C-alpha cells in the first residue's frame, strides 16, 4: 500500500544485473500460519555489468528476516539493512554464498501472490514479482538459476509435496512430518518457481516424445474432482504432439505436472514442470462444463504447455518484453486450436475478442504499445494488447515470411536463444535472419500504440479491364504518442467475380496472372494505389482476408456487395465479417432511429445463411450472432447504452419473428439425443441450435418457450442447460426464479457450477439486475476471497450487462467502486482489473461522464491505495 505516488519504471533504464545467482537451495517448513524459508544462494558478480556502489540489493516484501549469513558467517544488524522493498547488504565479496532465514504467513496472504492458501492447499504464484514474497532474491527474469527445493510438512494435512523438476529424495520425519526434495536441472528465472502442498488425488498418464523419451503426466486435483480431469489430460497430450509436429518442440523433463486450485487470480501459470491452474481451466464433465469451458481448457492447457519453450527455455530479459513470451505463446495456442478444429471459427472468435477488448484499450487512456515503455505496476500490463495484439504481431510476421520461412525463423530463434533471457528485438532479428527481409519498419508494431485505420476505395475501368484500389493508412494519437509513423501492414485480399468465384489478383506490370485466390499486399506508405488487370467485369473485393492485420477498415462497399461476400467469399472469416458489418450498420441505424427500416434483402440473406446446411454449423452460428452491445458501443462516438439495448432487442425480435419457421426447423434438425461428444461438429450443432432457441425466445415465441423448458429439463450437458437457463433468467418471473433455485439445489457444493449460477443472474438485463446482484453479495455462497466468484458476479455485471451497469442514476458505478475499495487491501491485482469498465468514461454522455469521473475520484481520494489501483485510476483520469 502506498501513501505516496508510486514511481514509474522505464525500459530505457534497463541495466544488466550486477550479480548473478547460479544455484538456489530452498528449504520450506510449511505451515499455513507460519512457514519458515531457508535459502542458500550461490552469488557472483556479473562480468557483463558495470560496477555499482558495492552494495547488494535483494528484493523482498512481507518477509520477517530472522537471520542472514555470508559464507557461513552470521551478519550483525550493522552489516545489512531491511526496508519495505528488500534487503541491502553492505560490502559483499565477488563470489559468495548467502543464506537467509525468513518467516511468512501463507494463511494471511489474500493477494494470492507468493505462497498462499487456497482451500486446504498451499500453493504459489510468482509471476511477475511474487517470489520476493517468499524469500530475498534478485527477483528479475534475467537472473536464471538452478533450483533444489526441500519441502517439509505435516504428513496428514499435506501428503503431496510438489515443486519444479524431478523428485530426488523423500524422508519420513519423527514428528509426524515428511519431506520431499525436488531438483530442477534447467536454469530458470524466479517467476517460474512453484510449490504445492496438500491432500491431492492424481490422474496419471504417459507420453512418448518424438525422440522416444517417456514423460509421466500428472494432473492433481482435490479428491472429489477426480472424475473431471480426463479432458484436460487429453488436451495436454494433443498439445504435446502438435508442438512436436508444428514447431519441432519436444518436452524436456521426465515429468509434467498440473495442479488445479480454486483460488487463482488469472487463468493458469506455466511454472517449469509444475503448472498451477485456476481449476476452471482443468475441471470438466459434460454435465458440469459447457462447450466454451471445454474449449477454454484445451487452449489454456496448450498455452501453458507451449510456454515451456516460449517463456521458460527462452524467457524475457525484463518485463517490458512480456509479449515476447505471451504474444508468441498466444499465437501458438491459436494455431493449435485452428489445426485441431476449424480455422475460420477460431479466427472469428479471436477477432471478436480483439475488437471487443483490444481495440477499445488501444483507443483509451490505458493504450500502450505491445512493448510498453514504462509501467508503475507490472501486474497491470498483462493486457489484451500485450497478449492478443502481441499474437497478431507474430501472425503478421508469419504472413510476411510465409509458412516455410517462418518455421525456419522460429527454429533459428529456439536454437540461438535457448537458455537465455531475451527481447522482442532478438525475436525480430531471427525473423530477419531466416528470411533475409528488412523488418525495420515492421518494428513499429512493437513501439507504437493505437489501431491503424485503413481507408480503401475501389475503382473499375471497364475499357482497360482494370480495377484500382487506393489504400490510405492513418493511426490516431494515443497518450504520450501524438504523432504516428506509417506501419508495415500485410493486407490479404481477393477479388470475386459475378459468379462468386475468386478471380486472379493480377497486379499491373506482372507478365502472367498468379494462381487464383488470396494475395498478400504490403503497405508501408501513408498511401498506395494497386491496379489489377485482366478483369472483364467489376470485381467485388474481399479485403483483409483472414484479418491479416489488426486494423480497422473503412471501405466503400455497398450492402449488396456485403451480402454477396456473405454468400460467396471463399474466405470463411470474411463471409462472417461481411455479415457482421451488415448487422452492425443496421443496429447502429436502429439505435439512432427506431423507425429505420429493416431491409427485406437483409432478412433474406440471414435466412439463406441459416438454411445453408452445407456449411459448418459453428461458422453459421457465428455469422448469425449479432455483435454484442459492448462491442457496438465502441463503434459510437457518444455511447447511447439505452438506444443500443433497444435496437439490439428490436432486431433480435424481428429476426426471431420473420425466420420463425426456419429457426424451429434448425432447432429440431440440430437437436441431439445421444451422449455428449466433444467434437467441432457436435459443438457446432449445439451452438446453432441454441442460437435458434435464443432468437425464438427473444421474439416471445410460445413454442420457443416450451422448447426452452423442455431443454432445461432434459439436457444432460451443461451447454444446453446454460443456454436455456440464460434465456429464462433474461425473461425473469416466477418460472425463472424456480429454475434458478432448482439449479442451485442441484449444484450446491460444485464451486465452478455455482459461478455460472452467479454470472447468469448478473448478466440478465432485467430492470432489477443491480438489486439482485447486491442481494447476491450477501448470499452465503458469495466470497470476495475467491476471484472466480468475484468475476462471476461483479465483473459479469459491469462488463456484460452494459445497459444495467450504466443505469443513468450512476448506481452501477457506485456499486463497482464500493467493490474496488473493499477489495484493494485484500487483492489489489483483482481490484485493479475490476475498474476496467470505468476507464472509458469519456465515451459516454456528459451526465454519465460526471458520475463515472466522480467515482474514479472517490477511489483516488483514498489515503492508501495499491500501486495497481493507483496506476489504473490516475491514468484513466489523466
Ligand atoms: N504467465 C501467466 C500470467 C501470470 C500473471 C501474473 N500476474 C499466465 C499465462 O499467460 O500463461
Ligand atoms: Zn501465457
TrEMBL record:
This chain is encoded by the gene named pepN
Annotated ranges, domain Aminopeptidase N-like N-terminal? 55-192
Q: What CDD domains would the database entry show?
A: M1_APN
| Enzyme class, UniProt record, top EC level | hydrolase
Can you give the residue ranges of the Peptidase M1 membrane alanine aminopeptidase domain? 232-445
Q: Which PANTHER family match?
A: PUROMYCIN-SENSITIVE AMINOPEPTIDASE
Does the entry feature the keyword Protease, yes or no? yes
| Alphabetized Pfam families for the sequence | DUF3458, DUF3458_C, Peptidase_M1, Peptidase_M1_N
The UniProt family comment states: Belongs to the peptidase M1 family.
> What lineage is on file?
Bacteria, Pseudomonadati, Pseudomonadota, Gammaproteobacteria, Chromatiales
Where in this chain does the record put each Peptidase M1 alanyl aminopeptidase C-terminal domain? 559-878
The cofactors named for this UniProt entry are: Zn(2+)
Alphabetical UniProt keywords: Aminopeptidase, Hydrolase, Metal-binding, Metalloprotease, Protease, Zinc
Q: Name one GO molecular function term.
A: alanyl aminopeptidase activity
Q: Name one GO biological process term.
A: proteolysis
* Catalyzed reactions per annotation: Release of an N-terminal amino acid, Xaa-|-Yaa- from a peptide, amide or arylamide. Xaa is preferably Ala, but may be most amino acids including Pro (slow action). When a terminal hydrophobic residue is followed by a prolyl residue, the two may be released as an intact Xaa-Pro dipeptide
Question: Which E.C. number(s) belong to this protein?
Answer: 3.4.11.2
Q: Any idea what this protein is called?
A: Aminopeptidase N
Function noted in UniProt = Aminopeptidase N is involved in the degradation of intracellular peptides generated by protein breakdown during normal growth as well as in response to nutrient starvation.
Write out the transmembrane intervals: none
Q: Where is the Peptidase M1 alanyl aminopeptidase Ig-like fold domain?
A: 450-555
**Annotated organism of origin:** Allochromatium humboldtianum
Highest taxon, organism lineage: Bacteria
Amino acid at each position: 500500500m502506498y501513501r505516496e505516488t508510486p514511481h514509474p519504471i522505464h525500459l530505457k533504464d534497463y541495466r544488466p544485473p550486477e550479480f548473478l545467482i547460479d544455484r538456489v537451495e530452498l528449504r520450506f517448513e510449511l505451515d499455513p500460519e507460519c512457514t519458515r524459508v531457508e535459502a542458500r544462494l550461490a552469488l557472483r558478480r556479473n562480468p557483463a555489468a558495470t560496477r555499482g556502489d558495492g552494495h547488494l540489493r535483494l528484493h523482498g516484501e512481507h518477509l520477517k528476516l530472522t537471520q542472514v549469513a555470508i559464507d557461513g558467517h552470521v551478519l550483525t544488524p550493522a552489516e545489512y539493512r531491511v526496508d519495505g522493498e528488500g534487503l541491502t547488504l553492505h560490502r559483499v565479496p565477488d563470489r559468495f554464498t548467502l543464506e537467509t532465514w525468513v518467516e511468512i504467513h501463507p494463511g494471511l496472504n489474500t493477494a494470492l501472490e507468493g505462497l498462499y492458501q487456497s482451500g486446504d492447499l498451499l500453493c504459489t504464484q510468482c509471476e511477475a514479482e511474487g517470489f520476493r514474497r517468499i524469500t530475498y532474491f534478485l527477483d528479475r527474469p534475467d537472473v536464471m538459476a538452478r533450483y533444489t527445493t526441500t519441502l517439509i510438512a505435516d504428513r496428514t494435512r499435506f501428503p503431496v509435496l510438489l515443486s519444479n523438476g524431478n523428485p530426488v529424495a523423500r524422508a519420513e520425519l519423527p514428528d509426524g512430518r515428511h519431506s520431499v526434495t525436488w531438483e530442477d536441472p534447467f536454469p530458470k528465472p524466479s517467476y517460474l518457481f512453484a510449490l504445492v502442498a496438500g491432500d491431492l488425488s492424481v490422474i496419471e498418464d504417459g507420453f512418448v516424445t518424438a525422440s522416444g523419451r517417456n514423460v509421466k503426466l500428472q494432473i492433481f486435483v482435490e479428491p472429489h474432482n477426480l472424475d473431471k480431469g480426463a479432458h484436460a489430460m487429453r488436451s495436454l497430450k494433443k498439445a504435446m504432439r502438435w508442438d512436436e509436429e508444428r514447431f519441432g518442440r519436444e518436452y524436456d523433463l521426465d515429468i509434467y505436472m498440473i495442479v488445479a486450485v480454486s483460488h487463482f487470480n488469472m487463468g493458469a501459470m506455466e511454472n517449469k514442470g509444475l503448472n498451477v491452474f485456476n481449476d476452471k481451466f482443468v475441471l470438466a464433465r459434460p454435465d458440469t462444463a459447457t462447450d466454451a469451458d471445454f474449449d477454454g481448457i484445451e487452449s489454456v492447457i496448450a498455452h501453458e504447455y507451449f510456454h515451456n519453450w516460449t517463456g521458460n527455455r527462452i524467457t524475457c530479459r525484463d518485463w517490458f518484453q512480456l509479449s515476447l513470451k505471451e504474444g508468441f505463446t498466444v499465437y501458438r495456442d491459436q494455431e493449435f486450436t485452428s489445426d485441431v478444429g476449424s480455422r475460420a471459427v477460431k479466427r472469428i472468435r479471436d477477432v471478436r475478442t480483439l475488437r471487443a477488448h483490444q481495440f477499445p484499450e488501444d483507443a483509451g487512456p490505458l493504450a500502450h504499445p505491445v512493448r510498453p515503455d514504462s509501467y508503475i505496476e507490472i501486474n497491470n500490463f498483462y493486457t489484451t494488447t500485450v497478449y492478443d495484439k502481441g499474437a497478431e504481431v507474430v501472425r503478421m510476421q508469419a504472413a510476411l515470411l510465409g509458412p516455410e520461412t517462418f518455421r525456419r525463423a522460429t527454429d533459428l530463434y529456439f536454437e540461438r536463444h535457448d537458455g537465455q533471457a531475451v527481447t522482442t528485438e532478438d525475436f525480430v532479428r531471427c525473423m530477419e535472419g531466416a528470411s533475409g527481409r528488412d523488418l525495420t519498419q515492421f518494428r513499429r508494431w512493437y513501439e507504437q500504440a493505437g489501431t491503424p485505420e485503413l481507408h480503401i476505395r475501389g475503382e473499375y475501368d471497364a475499357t482497360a479491364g482494370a480495377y484500382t484500389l487506393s489504400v490510405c493508412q492513418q493511426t490516431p494519437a494515443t497518450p504520450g504518442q501524438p504523432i504516428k509513423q506509417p506501419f508495415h501492414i500485410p493486407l490479404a485480399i481477393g477479388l470475386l467475380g459475378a459468379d462468386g468465384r475468386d478471380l486472379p489478383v493480377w497486379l499491373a506490370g506482372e507478365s502472367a496472372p498468379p494462381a487464383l485466390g488470396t494475395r498478400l499486399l504490403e503497405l508501408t506508405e501513408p498511401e498506395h494505389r494497386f491496379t489489377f488487370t485482366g478483369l472483364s467485369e467489376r470485381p467485388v473485393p474481399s479485403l483483409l482476408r483472414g484479418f491479416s492485420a489488426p486494423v480497422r477498415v473503412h471501405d466503400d462497399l455497398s450492402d449488396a456487395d456485403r451480402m454477396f461476400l456473405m454468400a460467396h467469399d471463399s474466405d470463411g472469416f470474411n463471409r462472417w465479417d461481411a455479415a457482421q458489418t451488415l448487422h452492425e450498420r443496421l443496429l447502429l441505424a436502429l439505435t439512432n432511429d427506431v423507425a429505420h427500416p429493416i431491409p427485406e434483402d437483409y432478412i433474406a440473406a440471414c435466412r439463406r445463411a441459416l438454411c445453408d446446411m452445407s456449411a459448418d454449423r459453428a461458422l453459421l452460428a457465428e455469422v448469425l450472432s449479432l455483435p454484442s452491445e459492448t462491442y457496438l458501443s465502441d463503434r459510437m462516438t457518444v455511447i447511447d447504452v439505452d438506444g443500443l439495448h433497444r435496437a439490439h432487442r428490436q432486431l433480435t425480435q424481428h429476426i426471431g419473428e420473420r425466420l420463425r419457421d426456419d429457426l424451429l426447423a434448425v432447432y429440431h434438425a440440430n437437436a441431439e439425443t445421444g451422449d455428449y461428444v466433444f467434437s467441432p461438429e457436435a459443438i457446432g450443432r449445439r451452438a446453432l441450435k441454441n442460437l435458434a432457441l435464443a432468437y425464438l425466445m427473444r421474439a416471445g415465441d410460445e413454442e420457443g418457450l416450451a422448447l426452452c423448458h423442455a431443454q432445461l429439463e432434459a439436457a444432460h450437458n451443461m451447454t444446453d442447460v446454460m443456454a436455456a437457463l440464460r434465456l429464462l433468467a433474461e425473461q425473469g418471473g416466477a418460472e425463472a426464479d424456480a429454475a434458478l433455485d432448482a439449479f442451485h439445489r442441484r449444484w450446491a457444493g460444485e464451486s465452478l457450477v455455482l459461478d455460472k449460477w452467479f454470472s447468469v443472474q448478473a448478466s440478465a438485463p432485467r430492470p432489477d439486475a443491480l438489486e439482485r446482484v447486491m442481494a447476491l453479495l450477501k448470499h452465503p455462497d458469495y466470497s470476495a476471497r475467491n476471484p472466480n466468484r468475484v468475476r462471476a458476479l461483479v465483473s459479469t455485471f459491469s462488463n456484460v450487462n452494459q445497459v444495467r451497469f450504466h443505469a443513468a442514476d450512476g448506481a452501477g458505478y457506485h456499486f463497482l467502486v464500493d467493490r474496488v475499495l473493499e477489495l484493494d487491501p485484500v487483492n489489489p491485482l483483482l481490484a485493479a482489473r475490476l475498474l476496467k469498465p470505468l476507464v472509458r468514461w469519456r465515451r459516454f454522455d456528459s451526465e454519465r461522464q460526471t458520475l463515472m469521473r466522480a467515482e474514479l475520484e472517490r477511489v483516488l481520494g483514498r489515503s492508501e491505495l495499491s500501486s495497481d489501483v493507483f496506476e489504473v485510476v490516475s491514468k484513466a483520469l489523466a
